[in-house]
Amino acid sequence: MFRGEAGQNSHFDLNVYDTVMNVQSRQDWLEDYLNEIGACEIVDSIQLSTPISEAVSLLRETLQLESRWAFGYQKIEEALNTLTQKLEEAGVFLAFNGVVGNNTHRALKVSECRGFALVNQTAPYIFVNSADSKSAQMFTIIHETAHIMLGISAGHAGEELFSHDTVESYCDKVAAEFLVPADVLQDVWTGDIKRVSRKFKVSEIVVARRAHDLRLMSDIDYRAFWLEYSKRPINKKKEGGGGSFYLTSVKRVGRLFAIHVRNAVNNRQLSYTDAYRLTGLYGNTYQHFMNNNV
Length: 294
Known about the structure:
Elements: E1 2-3, H1 14-33, H2 52-63, H3 76-89, E2 93-97, E3 99-100, E4 103-107, E5 115-118, E6 125-129, H4 134-150, E7 154-156, H5 166-179, H6 182-188, H7 193-200, H8 204-213, H9 219-230, H10 245-253, H11 255-266, H12 272-279, H13 283-292
Parallel strand pairs: 1-7, 2-6
Antiparallel strand pairs: 3-4, 5-6, 5-7
Helix pairs in contact: 2-5, 3-4, 4-5, 7-8, 8-9, 11-12
């Protein structure tokens, strides 16, 4: 299921496994709870034979985002929030976390897991490792969305792009074209990789690879950049001054999922005990979260 370290040498990190099981338990409950809602239209909407441009056009139409949508944001986090909101509106559930549940002693390594997609007709789920850089999270979200569109569950770790696996390669290409459209890059290309990456809200390596593939960057220049970039430490998310536990919990639980849990409890279709288990929030913390943050 996982590419990167988590899928090599029969090795599977326990923290990643427990995270997948946690998301699976949420999905199992949602599948039962939403059984009368019907299938999410984005699931199984394309095949590997679908041209990349067609898949990207379908996704743009679904999310109502035009090709230069990211240019309108100053910060990557704002673009991330928009993608999250648009996907939730399309019926996709998302969760962002850098640890197992709320256990800060069980960190999720980026080398083990950047993210994963669990396909389900009713409740497709995307998990993103929030310990990763914001620019990498942008790529992960759309890569995993492509998996949902294909109807193929999977996870990935390690480098952000361009696997040799057929399915992974397809998802990489969808993400690259959605986030850095060829025609737009050709229009705004200046040779300044850092500046261009900030416009598109993606990592420098994604922009460089796109520029190279579109012959905007020579083999020599690309290789020189790649060698320099590959020596950089993984650019993890910069931690602020602690931040709000409840704002972090919105990302960890997922706003759409939290809404369904709250409604189910209010309609007496879900016990508080099960709501605590599904959200990882208990007692007064759960009540404060639902009353003030959802």
